[in-house]
Amino acid sequence: MPALDDRCPFCPGNERMLPSIIMETPGQGQGNVDWQVRVVPNKFPALTPGVDQARLKEGIYLSMPGYGRHEVIIESPFHNRDLVIMSREEVETLVEVYHRRYVKLMREKQNMMVVIFRNHGPRAGTSLVHPHSQLIATGLVPGHVRLREREAERYFDETGRCVYCDILEFEGLDRRRVILENRSFLAFVPYAAEVPFEIWIVPRKHRAGFGAVPGDEKIDLAHALQEILAKLHARLDDPDYNYVINSWARYKADEPHLHWYLQVRPRLTTTAGFEIATGIRINPSLPEQDADYLKGR
Ligand SMILES: [Zn+2]
Ligand SMILES: [Zn+2]
């Protein structure tokens, strides 16, 4: 791929194709570009600010207008500079920008959740190849997230412990599913992974919200994330994937039973009839074997 593409809205020189620029970080002096990471509004937003959040009843149905924010985080000025080939410092800057936008948008009290994610490849939903992540702030907490909260709360009530801290402890001792670790993170294939090569990058330090993460932990996250993506790239030939930062909703940022983490889901299999009917996932791969394979054994 070329370093610049004159039809790409995220490439430098094509700013006229962007709605506006929300923020950017200073450039590293490469290619005479004066920015490195740039945040812009999504031109085709899933959710928009400035709309009423009132719930509407229509017969037995409930709806609400699509309030929220939808931003694109352009990870590099260079069209072909995917996260796996960036310098460590570039990935650190990217994680810093994730954090800054997260904190900034969570300060707006109408935002109940901020979700940061990256779609890589067509099967993961990417329409533009230029390296980018996205951020969506929502005005509600979806049932999917409330279910995870409730299950973690139930575990806490029964045991007095955070389920994620217990998983960390168990995986750290068991070792069979661990792929890598550093000072602040343990990365492993979850015991009941829903898809082949699913990976969780979990901070050792208990914190419910991504917003409270300090500087050294952000640097360690950048390194763990890049290493994990490099392993997927090398061992699975650059698979399509999504990753998401699962942080917790407003008013839940200090809970003793909630623990933020980053989840990577390669797109190697397809959801079919059985999954639609039952919600049960068929994972044709064993987590322990996936972990060994990624480690190069
Ligand atoms: Zn581009
Ligand atoms: Zn915990």
Sheet with most strands: strand arrangement: 1-2-5-7-6-11-12-10-9-8
Q: What top-tier CATH class of the largest domain fits best?
A: Alpha Beta
User: How many β-strands, per DSSP?
Assistant: 12
What is the strand content? 15-25%
Please tell me what the overall shape is. Answer: globular
Secondary-structure element order, N to C: EEEEEHEEHHEEEHEEHH
Q: What share of residues is helical? A: 25-40%
CATH superfamily assignment of the largest domain? HIT-like
For this structure, the CATH topology of the largest domain is HIT family, subunit A
Going by helix content, strand content and strand pairing, the class is alpha+beta
Biggest β-sheet, characterized? 10 strands, antiparallel
Arithmetic mean of pLDDT = 95
Low-pLDDT parts are none
Q: Please give the alpha-carbon distance between the first and last residues.
A: 31 Å
Comma- or semicolon-separated keywords:
2 domains, HIT family, subunit A, 10-stranded antiparallel beta sheet, alpha+beta, 297 residues
Briefly say what this structure is.
The chain has six helices and twelve strands. The chain is α+β, with helices and mostly antiparallel strands and about 300 residues long.
Question: Could you characterize what this model shows?
Answer:
This protein has 297 residues and is α+β, with helices and mostly antiparallel strands. The chain folds into two domains: 15-138, HIT family, subunit A (2-Layer Sandwich); 143-294, HIT family, subunit A (2-Layer Sandwich), CATH 3.30.428.10. Helices cover 28% and strands 22% of the residues. The chain has helices spanning 88-106, 143-159, 163-174, 215-236, 273-278, 287-294; strands spanning 23-26, 35-41, 56-58, 61-63, 68-74, 113-120, 132-138, 178-181, 185-188, 199-203, 241-246, 261-266. A ten-stranded antiparallel sheet has the order 1-2-5-7-6-11-12-10-9-8, with helices on both faces. A two-stranded antiparallel sheet has the order 3-4. β8 and β9 (185-188) form a beta hairpin. α1 packs across α4. One zinc ion binds next to α3.
